[in-house]
Amino acid sequence: MKSLSVAGITKSFGGQAVLRGVDLVVEDGSFTAILGPSGSGKTTLLRIIAGFERPDTGVVRLGDEVVDDASDHWVRCEKRRIGFVPQEGALFPHLTVGRNVGFGLQRGGRHGRVGELLELVGLSGLERRYPHQLSGGQQQRVALARALAADPEIVLLDEPFSSLDASLRASVRADVHDVLRLAGTTAVLVTHDQDEALSMADHVAVLQAGLIGQIDTPTALYGRPRDAELARFLGEANLLNGIVRDGYVSTEFGELTMVTPEASGAQQAWAIGSPARVLIRPEQLQVEPVGGGPVAGVLRSYEYFGHDAVMRVQPDKADVLPELVIRVTGGDPMVPGSRVGLSVHGPVVAWPAPIAETAS
Amino acid sequence: MVVALVVSAAVLLPVVFLIMQAVGVGRGDLSHLLLRNLTAHLVWNTISLTVVVTALCATVGTLAAWVTERTAVPGRRFWAVLVVIPLGIPDFVVSFGWRAIFPAFGGFWAAVLVMTLAVYPLVYLPVAASLRHADPAQEEVARSLGLGRLATFWRVTVGQARLAILGGSVLVALVVLAEFGAFEILGFNTLTTEIYTEFTVGFDQSAACAFSLILVVLGGLILFGEGAARGHGRSSRLGSGAARESRPLRLGRSTLPVLVGMGLLVGLALGVPVGSIIYLLIRGGTSTLPAASLAGAAGHTFMYAASAGLLATGAALPVALLSVRSPGRIVRLLERTNMLVLAVPSLVIALSFAYFTEHDLQGNFYQTTLLLVIAYAVMFFPMAVVAVRAAVARSPVGLEEVGHSLGVSRLAVFWRVTLPLIGPGLAAAFCLVFLESATELTATLVLHPTDSATLATQFWAYQTNLSYSQAAPYAGVMLLLAAVPSYVLGRWFDRQPGRLSAAQVTGPTPSSISPSTMVSL
Q: C-alpha distances in angstroms, A156 versus A4, A48, A192, B218, B269?
């Protein structure tokens, strides 16, 4: 197991900058997800770490060893001891499952190790099958076993679950997570799926337009995102204006306990009475009986999902409040058009409001 | 890149040379030659035959493909094999077979019948492939929208196979345009038979060049027309997930007519030529068999065809790698120009080689093994490229990268991943070129070394003297020699994508079927 660090990585393709100075440290034995929308450069970053591409500038280190310094020194992919799980698995179509898993092993120890790994991923007895005889989820698990076979220092996963059905995805995700935990390998997962990143990783690095926007634990990232854009990217967000008071922020919902993300640089600029942008997650809003709660409005829609439901409410003060999204636990459905009252529970995140927004 | 460029240049050389020759004739003479009555007559013969045969092949090939791919006709797999075999029988052998049974057989409609029976598989194969890939759900949707079986077939099935039908028809047209032996046997005059006569009897170079130029222009027009007619439509599936196997259509009361139709097709296309040769062999007995010259001719044929197969496959690999792995505007242009060779009849290529050696090399190399092998390789180069390219496309770079990431060296990854994946394609390319070269008549007649006859030239010599019994053994051995590569190709075709899992098709899939993909059988 080794740590991974990349520093100052840039890369452009045909004049188009894809990575614009990425710094990232992945600790020994940790599971880090690189989360980014499509086109953010996340796959390019992973391919540079793997050694399939070379950066224009920057340094890649595996443990203490520099494997790429963007000039003369470059350790080829096959010497890096990484395990790579590409999209769709990319199993060798002409080889059996057993031979796929044993591809990177010396002939001698192959047999026992292959059985061990297939047991680890829960596919014992399928050695003789060919990839096309397996389901998508099974293929993905074989690809993982193949990557783990030669005891890699670090496992890189490139959107490995995106080709699976939604129903299958959750279970394969959980299996892969468990297998990687058991193996204790350092792992880097690239994905555009917030749920995937938040549920699987110890740390999530958000890559936006070729730069790391924030790297943090899933709870910190979701609960205290650095700015409004990140907040929206990580899940649904109600954003409203407020005024900073001493330890709380005053909004249409009354006075709310305030937390400020460390990374936002807010502490310095924070002065009592200054305008703020406030984040309220849908699950922080509570529906009150009619007439209750500081904010009243009309229910626009009610989407029922079984485990929970999402309501959209048009507040009466539409000039100062946006349409609000509320997540509630299932229960009896409500009829659109009915009046509701709303309140907030729990502390909220606030950032200094940009100048332009203060004016409005 | 450099290798690919050199190969492409070599392939295009004959065409360039031909144009220079024709220009050398001088404009006055050229227009004089081209405006003769004879020219008009030959051009009319050639064009009308091409149009009628192409239309018939498109119909027969598409219907046969629909029967074997989409219906529950009894013995479906069996028919699927039989229907393809006529492609392996040289067109001149087919017409020879008919002529041997019906001595009065000849003229326009005879030529139409023979060519249709000999080349309809060129439409059948791509259409069958595209029907196999096509999503059966589209037909189900059409039925659910209230379309009857016939309307569904016409609007959805034919629609799905549109590009394949078009591409196959283009190939048919090009083949008919270039055909020489079959028409000579049937006594039907076209541009090719006239060019050959001018070359052998009159040795009138300028006339041969002028007629060749007409052929090249016609071929170019066909290729260009195909490009224009393709448009930007796509026949592939949108969205992800593997297509289900389609449920074959039950024929019910139509079973018998369909069986009769398939039987008739196979009987005429396969039964008549093969039966006729067997009949001649039996009637001729062993006394007419000059065993030594038969073995010698077979040996020469095998050697020339195998060398051409190796040369063409070896030359196709860099071009195919370039076109799949680093596609770009220049590479596409290169591919297009390579495909132009398809539109140049083999007789024309042979003539340009003959004139080239005569003029510029003082007759050196003319009628040598080397020149013949090079001519074969040039003529069948596009086919080799297509087969190799399909294979390279099935071995995506991603697989090699995974191999490297597992700590396996570059050479070992090539050996253990790339080669097993593209190997079948290389073998297919070799077999295709071998098959075509072994059964090639026209260029062989012009270019073969005088002291070493091949099966085709010996067959031709006897056939010309109307010694049918003596010609038959050569045709027979030719068919046997062609049977092995045909079988290999059939197996390869059966394993083409459409039956591959999603993991195998991560690379670019040849979903758009163009003349290129279709030559690949």
A: 11, 11, 15, 56, 57
